[in-house]
Design goal:
This protein is an alpha/beta fold. The protein contains 36 helices and 24 strands.
Length: 962
């Protein structure tokens, strides 16, 4: 297989172009491509002639024979040198004698590849001393003033060929480029790896009998096969016709079975935007672009408006990007037949400042000018001109116009979808009915015309450029007028007006195919029929008319059980003259009588408990606080502690909605607690345990091990986040408006323990030792292998990691998380990374995987050096599951304050579980310290066991807690 430098260059631009070049396909013709080829050849001859003049005639060689031995060469400069790598396929012994060629940096291609390059020039640097070979520096001539990455890769390809011929590395090359013949040194050795990857891909494409997928790209405008490829793409309705779609997006769609623009058009689904996103720019939908093309109608997203408060001035600039030189400024003032056109022409670079000042002078004559242009080229022009030649005075007419020019491209993007394959000015204006005098107008042709004019000074070429620029300004006016399409038809051309009137508002597109949720139909009768088919409607309006049982049940269902006023007992008042807050003497204020509604927990069940309390209300003369209310009452409520504990238990731990909890209390205990009261009691409970929650957070931040994770929560349509912090004993949930790292960095700024987390980048900003969750990594790697089933390099890396992790997990299963036993695996980890570093990955997926391992090297195996540090983040994920169950209950109706209250109570609930404490018992106890309650319960159990062992009843030993 023979790969030449022209073939390598073609593959750099496009795989299809390289394939056609390898087959010797006849080009369909491209005026610009032919001019570039001729310009390149003439520049090479000119540059080579100038380079030869710097070397004595006896020390230079022109087109030396290809069979010449470079090592024995005596010349200092060789021009037009043919270099070809030796054919190793005929001599297996040569291949075996140099098995580690790539490891020595030579970057040799596979033995079946023959590399060939016609070097523009080669400079030979004589040996600097005995034992040091002469150095060869390949030289490439490029006529452009600005170099591209492809130019550097071509030079690196030349260096690779020379290195293979010499048998040693060629690390340096030179590029002579531009009008001034500037010389740029390029480190070819740094690009050798990428050249080898490209060669591998080229070899795979050439060895395959099936041609590569045809993909249109930016190089098509410069390619000699443009017409051929465009025709095939249109016939296939290929996705690459959509100019704004990236290769990754196309690949993703193809993996779903979507290969054509028509297929893509059927995937668009209008979505209702959340309120918090309505003021932000809508993202670009390729499916909506495809839908506009299929229906041949303009599709509008939202209500785009173009407000021009002043006189419109349409600006279009022609220049030579290669030289950063602007030679023609087109200005069109006003609209319609009354518009005035100005064309400011510069013969040379010295005239650029002159036409800039002329442009400012034109703006001075306009009342309130508003500059309108298309694309970023004019934006760059305005910024550069103001920097080179100074802008207008602040109080002048041009100053506001230059400060805020209107870019129509930004106004159209993601808001107006024209039925064109691209959002280019030529395509959109052409759809609106505008016609250019040139058959296939393109900006790249102007580069050719300008260079030809500089050579010939032809008046016809200058007129062609001015006409092209004028027509661009006129087209800009047409497109600007089309932005009013949502409300009115614009355009002077009758056909353009007819097309422009065919607009579709995306918000008006309804999804009639919905089968669940709100049923809507353009046929009114269908909606009435659907309403009559609802279960509740039929049962309450239809069946009840013919069934006495249903009628009787309907009447009973409206009867609510009310609180009964009979009391279980009456408790007389007790004197309480001492203030519980400051210890002062209390002064009686009034005699009170209050009924307590509570629950009584017995050994075999729960029953309603109603107590009539009679007591005095006191006030303290020292602190002026009121007291005397029995402790059985929940603060500022007629309900008792057991009732509040029960509803919090059902709501938080059992995950029953509070509305349902109210029904349970009414049905089983005859307590008709209003819905608003239920929420108030829950909020009050959250305030009571806020101090407990704060203590949990402080202990977690001061601990030696911490697991952290985050998940989403919806707050009235707004996306917020909940962070979970946990260890083996406590859990805390923290609310945050966003997923940014400010909250984590603030809570853990002084944390010195081990942090176990997933691979979210926020955690990397913390300075503490970290352990990444290897289960997350394993799942990601498994997905990569499934997505790339034929990538052997990726499978090799993943399989090596799997073997390493399997051995570590087996040690954990036998010995636990002890560094004394896990430390032996650190040597295996080192060997794994050394093998990983020596790999030369050719596939993008394998290289991405290798870089991920390298990036997180210090955070994947931290647990091997510490005791008790797990290798996964299951503790945090388990805590996230508890929150997810509660989130499913409160979803949709949750406010930010409600979410914070739930998180406080859920933190206490999960901490009780981790501490081995019953959540309901803790709530009923009135205790605020979970650790103290846990110790009292353990102490109670120890005393109970001791008394039973001694033959004494448990009641004989006093209980001091709980």
């Amino acid at each position: 297989m023979r790969i030449t430098s022209p073939l390598f260059d073609a593959f750099l631009k496009c795989a299809t172009k390289g394939h056609l070049r390898s087959l010797g396909e006849i080009s369909s013709g491209n005026e610009y491509a032919e001019w570039v080829r001729g310009r390149d050849e003439s520049y090479q001859r000119e540059a080579a002639r100038g380079l030869q003049e710097t070397v004595p005639e006896t020390q230079r060689a022109v087109a030396p024979p290809a069979t010449e031995n470079l090592k024995a060469a005596k010349w200092t400069l060789a021009v037009d040198l043919m270099a070809q790598t030796p054919d190793r396929s005929a001599d297996n012994q040569v291949c075996e004698s140099r098995p580690n060629e790539e490891s020595r940096g030579l970057g040799g291609p596979p033995s079946e590849q023959l590399l060939e390059s016609r070097l523009h020039a080669v400079e030979r640097v004589p040996s600097e001393g005995r034992g040091k070979p002469a150095q060869f520096v390949p030289i490439r001539f490029v006529f452009r003033n600005k170099l591209t990455k492809d130019d550097r890769l071509l030079l690196a390809f030349d260096a690779l060929v020379v290195s293979q011929v010499l048998g040693r590395e060629v690390s340096l090359g030179k590029v002579i480029h531009g009008d001034d013949h500037a010389t740029l040194k390029v480190r070819a050795s740094a690009l050798a790896g990428e050249v080898r990857k490209r060669l591998g891909k080229i070899a795979a494409l050439l060895s395959n009998t099936v041609p590569p997928d045809l993909v249109l790209n930016r190089h098509c405008a410069e390619c000699e096969f443009q017409a051929r490829c465009r025709k095939i793409a249109v016939e296939k309705d290929d996705l690459s016709l959509l100019a704004g779609m990236s290769a990754k997006e196309r690949q993703k769609l193809r993996s779903k079975g979507i290969f054509t623009v028509t297929q893509l058009s059927y995937t668009f689904r209008p979505r209702r935007r959340p309120k918090q996103m309505r003021d932000k720019r809508e993202k670009y939908h390729h499916s909506l672009k495809a839908l506009a093309i299929r229906e041949k109608k303009i599709h509008i997203v939202g209500s785009p408006e173009l407000k021009i408060e002043g006189t419109p001035v349409y600006l279009d600039v022609e220049g030579l990007p290669d030289r950063d030189f602007y030679y023609l400024i087109g200005v069109r003032i006003g609209n319609g037949e009354a518009a005035v056109q100005h064309s400011l022409w510069a013969d040379t670079v010295e005239d650029e400042g002159k036409i800039w000042r002329g442009f400012l002078g034109v703006l001075e004559t306009v009342e309130k000018p508003v500059l309108i242009h298309y694309g970023s080229y004019e934006t760059t022009f305005l910024n550069r001109m103001c920097g080179r030649y100074d802008g207008p005075a602040n109080d002048s007419k041009p100053s506001p116009a230059l400060a805020k020019p209107v870019n129509l491209s930004s106004s159209i993007f993601a808001q107006i979808y024209y039925p064109t394959f691209s959002n280019g000015l030529k395509d959109i204006a052409g759809f609106l009915g505008f016609e250019w005098s040139e058959r296939e107008p393109s900006g790249i042709k102007t580069l050719l015309w300008r260079h030809l004019w500089e050579t010939t000074r032809s008046t016809d070429l200058r007129d062609m450029l001015c006409v092209y620029n004028t027509e661009d300004c006129h087209a800009l006016e047409i497109v600007s007028g089309s932005l009013a399409l949502p409300t009115e038809s614009t355009g002077k051309n009758a056909s353009a007006s007819n097309q422009a009137s065919q607009t579709v508002s995306v918000e008006a597109i309804k999804r009639y195919e919905k089968r669940f949720g709100n049923f809507s139909s353009p046929i009114t009768q269908f909606e009435q029929i659907n309403k009559a088919a609802h279960w509740d409607y039929q049962r309450n309006r239809i069946y009840v008319r013919s069934s006495k049982l249903l009628k009787r049940n309907a009447r009973r269902s409206h009867v609510h059980r009310r609180n009964r006023t009979n009391t279980a007992k009456r408790v007389p008042y007790k004197e309480c003259p001492t203030c519980p807050f400051c210890g002062g003497k209390g002064t009686p204020r009034e005699f009170c009588s209050r009924v307590l509604h509570d629950l009584h927990f017995g050994r075999s069940g729960i029953k309603r408990w109603t107590v009539d309390y009679r007591f005095f209300s006191y006030s303290c003369a020292c602190c002026h606080k009121s007291f005397g209310t029995p402790e059985d009452f929940w603060p500022q409520s007629k309900y008792g502690r057991n009732l509040v504990a029960f509803l919090v238990y059902l709501s938080v731990e059992v995950c029953i909605p509070l509305v349902t909890v109210g029904k349970i209390l009414n049905r089983f205990f005859g307590l008709d607690v209003p819905q608003g009261t239920l929420f108030a009691l829950k909020n009050s409970a959250a305030k009571q345990y806020k101090h407990t929650y704060d203590g949990i957070l402080l202990r977690l931040a001061a601990g030696s091990l911490l697991h952290v994770d985050e998940t989403q929560i919806s707050i009235r349509g707004k996306t917020a986040y909940v962070w979970v912090f946990t260890n083996l004993h406590e859990v805390a949930y923290v609310y945050a408006d966003s997923r940014e790292g400010a909250l984590v960095q603030g809570l853990l700024k002084d944390y010195k323990g081990i942090l176990v987390s997933d691979f979210y980048g926020v955690y990397d900003s913390l300075t503490c030792p970290q352990q990444k969750c290897l289960v997350h990594l394993m799942r990601d790697l498994n997905d990569e292998v499934l997505d790339h089933p034929y990538d052997e390099e990726l499978k090799q890396i993943v399989a090596s990691f799997a073997v390493l992790l399997r051995a570590i997990v087996e040690t954990v299963d036998r010995r636990g998380l002890k560094r004394h036993f896990l430390g032996k695996h650190r040597a295996e980890v080192g060997r794994f990374y050394r093998r990983l570093g020596s790999l030369d990955c050719r596939s993008a997926a394998a290289e991405k995987c290798r870089q991920r391992f390298q990036k997180n090297r210090d955070k994947l195996f931290t647990f091997l050096s510490y005791d008790g540090v797990p290798w996964n983040n299951n503790n945090a994920e388990h805590a996230i599951k508890a929150f997810a169950k509660l989130r499913d209950v409160v979803r949709g109706s949750c406010t930010e304050d409600t979410a914070r209250d739930y998180l406080v109570l859920l933190s206490v609930c999960q901490t009780c579980k981790y501490m081995g404490v019953d959540f309901l018992d803790f709530l009923r106890s009135g205790e605020k310290d979970i650790h103290a309650f846990a110790e009292s319960r353990r102490g109670h159990r120890r005393r109970t066991q001791t008394s039973q062992a001694d033959g004494l009843p448990a009641e004989a030993i006093p209980d001091s807690g709980g």
